[in-house]
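## Example pair
The file below holds two records. Each record gives the amino-acid sequence first, followed by its structure token line.
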Amino acid sequence: MHILTSPAQLQRLEGILRKSLPLALPVFGAVLNINRGNPGQFEVLVDKWPEFGAVLARPSGEVASGDMGHCRRGVTWCPGTCQVCSEHPWVPPGAAPHPHPHMGTPLSPPLTPASSRLAPGVRLGSLSASHVDLLNNTWPYGGNARSRIYLDTILKRFPHVCLQDSSGQPVAWVLKDHFGTGAHGYTLPEHRRRGHMQVALTVAAQRAQARGFPTFG
């Protein structure tokens, strides 16, 4: 496997993967993040360049195994030949993160503004380090020290949307991860059936589009 380090190569790869959406989503988001400051400290590998058959996104510095079969998330995006894989060292096997807020056909027009749909007493806010335990306790794969570190990392490095009540306490949120996908979305039980998650997902999609990330609906 060959690590792509040239900005020109990474930009070219981004363009190639964009033409293969949505099948290339598992690695495309990682390439977008790398080309926009690399907040996740990831790297991209290909089996050869420029006519590659496989792409792997991983945390920088990991040793390449050469075995694409172990990837936790992979899709075939070139019929019969190309494999796109992405992985994170903590995400448990079988725990594929949620896809982009809307999956299906690419949306090119801007989404309808969501701010006008906020329920009375609810406002857009943000999460902080003091909320990591709340995130960890409400994540289906959380509740342990490793998941807490993972959630703390993505909270600090990647975009999120949070809805707060009048006292400033979180009621619903959506966190993005290293691959530009939804890592943790949740509405507190006492605040459900009020449309909070729909608003949070729409705001997250609007912000993703503004950064050049694709949104599907």
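Second record, same layout:
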Amino acid sequence: EEPVLLAELKPGRPQRYDWKSSCETWSVAFSPDGSWFAWSQGHCVVKLIPWPLEEAELCKTSERKSRGSKAEVRSRGGAKEKTLECGQIVWGLAFSAWPAAEARETDPACAVGLPCLILATGLNDGQIKVWEVQTGHLLFSLLGHQDVVRDLSFAPNGSLILVSASRDKTLRVWDLSRDGRGVLRRQVQVLSGHVQWVYCCSISPDCRMLCSAAGEKSALLWSMRSYTLIRRLEGHQSSVVSCDFSPDSALLVTASYDACVIMWDPYTGEQLRTLRHVPLHSALDYSSEVHTSSLRSVCFSPEGLYLATVADDRLLRIWALEMRSPVAFAPMTNGLCCTYFPHGGFIATGTRDGHVQFWTAPRVLSSLKHLCRKALRTFLTTYQVLALPIPRKLKEFLTYRTF
């Protein structure tokens, strides 16, 4: 079943043509509970939209023209769409829950006794601005990077550990919780090892590992416990620009300008599969001199059975875990990023003209076998599985070697 375009959101202000404003959507994000959606729509602005929206409201939102409409969209809960004026081009976005005690210390406007939601924004000048989503208030700024903050990733366990990736060739680890004296801990570690701009960072769902991708042919895998380099993942022929872990942390995918996605076992460093982006000539009108399949983004579906990729050949591709060819395509223009809705069912993509598109995605009922594998791999490493006194074929299945 081919992805169907559900809606398209467009910037709500006239396009400016100076280099400082930028109009690209370099990042889109859903909050972990799926209650909010954010996108960097260009013009130094982030849009926050409460989710879910009624279908009629979503359609109305999608029809906005770039003439500066100030209409607000309401969700079922009464929350309102917000515009965050960041003052700089926005490159990276990441949501996290903000414990009630932390929220009241930092922003008294938060509802008493209730956890708040925060959004971190990575900016062109190296700053990271952290916002309270429900009110749209700026909580604080994190300073340290010397160049563009290209990507952000919060630890999924709610520990308020934030990792930032920058064009200054470093990753920085921040602790946004408070110590016993109520002081915000802020910067924890600087990770150095890349020699080019760092494009992407991803923390594994079990919070054991961190993957980073830069303008290099290898991705780096780091320990989130010791903040030391575990290994280099070498296999691509051009710059690695995107990475993502499977929901059980047992798989890692990296996407590169070489038009390939490589699937890795992060524990052993073994390459399990390569997905090659072969151009569909009927869908293209580029010059033959342009490498049209250069990848921009890759992400796992919430249940871990599908991948989505966006490439320069104007296609959104959906891949099934067991197959080497895409199971579905959708034509899109100038795609830059993609992410799944946390509960599945559709995908959001960002484009170079500042738009966001929402696409249907395959809905699947996971088999009992996959659910058992996912449950086991959530707490067992590859080495621990291989040490179990079970048949070889079962080990191969649990370690994703039966593709």
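Notes on the second record: The chain has one domain: 5-55+79-100+113-281+289-365. The two ends are 22 Å apart (CA to CA).
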